[in-house]
Amino acid sequence: MTYQENYSAVVAQENYCLARQPICNTESETAAYELLYRNNPDQTDARVSCPHEATARVLTLAFMDIGIRPLAGKLPVYVNMTDELLLRKDILPKPADQIVLEVLEDIPPTPEILDALKDLKSQGYKIALDDFVLNPKTRAFLPYADIIKLDVMSCSRATLEKRVSILKKQSGIVLLAEKVETWDEFHECKAMGFDLFQGYFLSRPEILNNRPKSDSGMLIAQLLAEIYKADPDVAELEKLISRDPQLYYRIIKYVNSALYSLPNEISSLRHAITLLGLDQLKRIVSMLALAGSSKRAPSLMPVALIRAKMCQNLAESRGEQNAESFFTIGLLSMLDAFFQRPMDMILEDLPLQKSIKEALLTHSGKGGEVLDTVITYEKGMWEDLSSSEEQTILTNAYIQSVIWADEVSGITSLAKGK
Fold it and tell me: Residue limits of the HDOD domain (predicted)?
């Protein structure tokens, strides 16, 4: 049974929401994921009805029903723990070295909990202290902590700087800033000494209005402009792609991959266009062009691919015509983050359909509605979605998109010459 078939069988029997949020390092590269979960989509807020059950279920889903590989590859995953599950440490899944156990702020440092943490560390699990505030009581956790998460929105900058200064003196502790909303906050936290960062800033642009276009950036803009014309000029496409040997190679490599199972090896771009058609080539060129567009592309690309595929999956589930256009909307919705320029300035150079531009700029129309829904799900704001039935459909679409993006990312990683 494939991952998709296995997951669909599970989701048909359960009613829950599951997503992941990237955690990045100081170079804005994805370093880990936190698994977000709610076991009762009918709730009106984000709290779970039974924390023990929720954590046990997310571990079962991630490591057994779906599998950790399509969810996170080889990267670590952070999972919220409860005191009960920490004490019942024998039921935690393996591999231990891929799991970071988050000790929530309401768990007291009792002798039993501290003994459990000591044992879990000896098994290879990493321990993170969530929403940590140092005081005489919580100090008992420090000898067992690998990572400390600080909520940057919960206190003033001066208080945050003081906390970082104190905690940095603890040997071997990694500091993680959570709820980082903007690139300004990212840079501030980086300067304070944080090692890891979590929040929505990654999917937002760091706007540099006077930033000149590089030669490679201009080539990508020209390429995207040509391919999104109503009647693209194949000869012009070949000419533009040929100016970037790495991009040319990636396209041929991608099309020759097992994703397409073509009967003959493709040796030229003209051959690829003939076999695939312009619509499919448009998708491939867009993905690979963005994958090599900036130093932040390796972190942004998985998010963009999941968003694009989820938009398409959701459009198909709703019976929308031309679901490919919804994929385009999802993929291009992060152009500003890729190119570090305002979206309206970027779209001036692209001859996109009016409905696609409106979806990207104002989130209007059916495309904008689907995009809004997908972004809401990404953020774990499930209480804002309309019904448990829709949330089940979205969860299914999300995990299938994660699996698909994992397959695709092996080819798009060639953007970095891997």
Answer: 213-398
